[in-house]
Every structure is written in structure tokens, then in C-alpha cells.
Automatic annotation (TrEMBL):
UniProt domain comment: Has three domains with a flexible linker between the domains II and III and assumes an 'L' shape. Domain III is highly mobile and contacts RuvB.
Region (Domain III): 156-205
Source organism of this protein record: Bradyrhizobium agreste
Gene field: ruvA
Family to which this protein belongs: Belongs to the RuvA family.
Key words, A-Z: Cytoplasm, DNA damage, DNA recombination, DNA repair, DNA-binding
Protein name listed in UniProt: Holliday junction branch migration complex subunit RuvA
SMART domains assigned to the protein according to its UniProt record, in alphabetical order: HhH1
Annotated segments matching region Domain I: 1-64
């Protein structure tokens, strides 16, 4: 199995690159984001590779980092997500943003991917929610709160405060982060109005 290729960029196709490794040209399929970051033809490049072997073909998928390749594998553990959809998601969201979106249950961010509808986006954030926090760079308290709100386990004032900020036009992840911070400073038992006021102060920083 091929795990990594190092060579010279020969040429580009719509969704692939030909990488010349010692005179052999490998056709490597990549996300649009990866293709945009690769150098010009004739220049050196290194790609982490995922090899697919089928009865009628061998297909190579290339990634700029091992972490991106890991997300490619993880995404395909979700029902209804194949290689094409996984590449499309990684073309829309870089790994850290994808991890944050899943950790915060931000279905809308994942659904921005062409070809990914609300149902598939929901399956991605639901089925990968336990794996994303390890890769995410958001406050664990915010991840916990986003999960509690999504599962309808959050205290009523907290849920109402987040809902109020969302109604004011803020995104769910922004609102959850602001109210998580507000809850910490206000302490347990804070009323909805106080949380909204503190949350708006956080968002104004």
C-alpha cells in the first residue's frame, strides 16, 4: 500500500494532480483546498496517500497532512459518506474548522459543502461528535454546553439565552461560546436576562 508520495508536480486535472515520482506519473485525487495549496508544475511536493484498491481499479487520494487523511477516513465511517463527499467536505472546511464544527454541533457549517444536505450534515456531526473534541481547538466547556443544548440537557436560562442570541443574528457556535463564558462569570443560578447581557458583552470584545 502507498502511504506517501514525494515527487514533482507534472500537471493538474479537475480533481487530481499527476505527481512524477522517479519518472512514474501517479494520478492522485485531492480536495479542491489541497489542489489550491500545491505548487506549480515542475516544483516538488509531498502528499500523504490513501490507497483504494477495487477489483477494476486502484485509486490514490492525496492530502497535505496526515491529519487531513485521518479526517478523510473518519468521515467515511458516517453512513452515506463516501470518498467523493469526504473530499468535498475537506475542500470546504480545513481539518481544524471541521473538528470545531463537529464539536460544536454546527450542522450549518458542514452543510455548506456542495452536495451535502442537512441530513448528511446532521449525521456527520452526530456520529463523529465523540471523536472531534480531540482535534478541536475550542474551549471544552463550550463543547460540553453545545452538546447539552443539542441534547436538550442545558439549564433553561442557558438554552434561552443562546436562543436569544441566535435570534439576534449570531451563529449557534458564537452564541454558545459567549453564553458559556457568561455562565462561568455569573455562576450557577444566573437568570436568562443576565446571561444575555454578559453574552453580548463577550461578543462585543
Amino acid at each position: 500500500m502507498i502511504g506517501k508520495l514525494k515527487g514533482l508536480i507534472d500537471s493538474y486535472g479537475e480533481d487530481f494532480v499527476i505527481l512524477d515520482v522517479g519518472g512514474v506519473g501517479y494520478q492522485v485525487h485531492c480536495s479542491s483546498r489541497t489542489l489550491q495549496h500545491l505548487p506549480s508544475p515542475g516544483e516538488a511536493a509531498v502528499l500523504s496517500i490513501e490507497t483504494y484498491v477495487r477489483e477494476d481499479q486502484i485509486k490514490l487520494f492525496g492530502f497535505r497532512t496526515d491529519q487531513e487523511r485521518e479526517w478523510f477516513r473518519l468521515l467515511q465511517t458516517v453512513q452515506g459518506v463516501g470518498a467523493k463527499v469526504a473530499l468535498a467536505v475537506l475542500g470546504t472546511l480545513q481539518p481544524s474548522d471541521l473538528a470545531n464544527a463537529i464539536a460544536l454541533r454546527d450542522k450549518a457549517a458542514v452543510a455548506r459543502t456542495p452536495g451535502v444536505g442537512p441530513k448528511v450534515a446532521e449525521r456527520i456531526v452526530t456520529e463523529l461528535k465523540d471523536k472531534a473534541p480531540a482535534f478541536a481547538n475550542v474551549d471544552p466547556a463550550v463543547v460540553h454546553l453545545a452538546g447539552a443544548v443539542d441534547d436538550q440537557r442545558a439549564p433553561r436560562p442557558v438554552a434561552d439565552a443562546i436562543s436569544a442570541l441566535v435570534n439576534l443574528g449570531y451563529g449557534q457556535p458564537q452564541a454558545a461560546a459567549a453564553i458559556a463564558s457568561a455562565s462561568r462569570s455569573a455562576g450557577e443560578g444566573a437568570e436568562t436576562a443576565q446571561l444575555i447581557r454578559l453574552g453580548l458583552k463577550e461578543l462585543a470584545k
